[in-house]
Design goal:
This protein has about 250 residues and is α/β, with parallel strands linked by helices. It contains ten helices and seven strands. The chain has a single domain (about 5-180, about 220-235), classed as Rossmann fold. The chain has helices spanning about 20-30, 65-75, 90-100, 100-110, 125-135, 155-160, 160-170, 180-190, 205-225, 225-230, and strands at about 5-10, 35-40, 55-60, 80-85, 110-120, 140-145, 170-175. A seven-stranded parallel β-sheet has the order 3-2-4-1-5-6-7, sandwiched between helices. Helix 5 (about 125-135) packs parallel to helix 7 and helix 8 (about 180-190) crosses helix 9. It is globular.
Length: about 250
């Protein structure tokens, strides 16, 4: 494997923990760094539709014969591939990984799997992550996203054995701060990428300001975390103060 493998990034986890939200933020960040990326939407809610104006997005279903589509991309020119996986279905995700010998294929092509796992306050999130770590082990890299829309303490996660196991696997954590719910609902209803908020004057200026600060805090959390930056295929030399996200 090369010293800097290209990345297959999968957002995984329980239902309604913010997987699509995190991936949309990541698409904006990768696009701003001029990375060549392609995105696959495995979710039936089409939460990524607004981003088709920024990057190529295709629907995919690994559970119904969609495997070959993404495997062909390993020999292409993309710097990263991202897949928004459906909530739950952990057994099917593990079956897919085993069936196609995913880790062997990635290694042969110079790629590495990153599992991007948002969590909420629920115990279900911890149990999902625990099972995932048990199955995948050191064959992938892990980023846990503490979504503060749901909680600030994450006591279920912090008290669990999975918290320590993540550390032994060199996993890392980043914070996604809570966005004002009215800002979030407005952007969702209009169907905009987060990077296009400032140009849409129909959105109240205060909502745009909230969204700007929210997105910037997430980008700073990623860029200031050298492990996360590496796992997401971002430019390693770029520091937070050099990155200016424009709304």
């Amino acid at each position: 494997m090369s010293l800097s493998p290209r990345r297959l990034i999968m957002t995984v986890g329980d239902s309604r923990v913010g997987k699509s939200t995190v991936l949309r933020l990541l698409i904006d960040l990768l696009h701003a760094q001029e990375k060549q990326i392609k995105v696959y939407d495995h979710d039936t809610r089409f939460k990524l539709a607004a981003y088709s104006q920024i990057v190529p997005i295709e629907s995919i279903d690994f559970f119904r014969g969609g495997t070959d589509i993404i495997l062909d991309e390993f020999n292409g020119n993309c710097d990263a591939l991202a897949v928004d996986m459906p909530g739950q279905y952990l057994d099917k995700v593990c079956q897919y990984i085993h069936k196609v010998h995913l880790f062997k294929l990635l290694n042969e092509c110079g790629w590495r799997l990153t599992l991007l796992h948002p969590i909420s306050h629920r115990l279900d999130c911890v149990e999902y992550l625990e099972q995932l770590l048990e199955f995948v082990g050191s064959s992938a890299d892990y980023i846990v996203v503490k979504n503060q829309y749901f909680d600030k303490q994450f006591s279920q996660y912090q008290r669990s054995s999975v918290y320590e196991k993540l550390s032994t696997l060199n996993g890392t954590e980043i914070i996604l701060k809570e966005l004002n719910k009215y800002s979030y609902e407005t952007i969702e209803s209009i169907g905009l990428p987060y990077s296009a908020v400032s140009n849409h004057l129909a959105i109240y200026s205060v909502y745009r300001a909230y969204t700007y600060r929210w997105a910037k805090s997430f980008y700073s959390a990623v860029i200031n975390n050298s492990i996360a930056k590496n796992y997401l295929g971002l430019n390693k030399s770029q520091r937070s103060e050099e990155y200016e996200y424009t709304f």
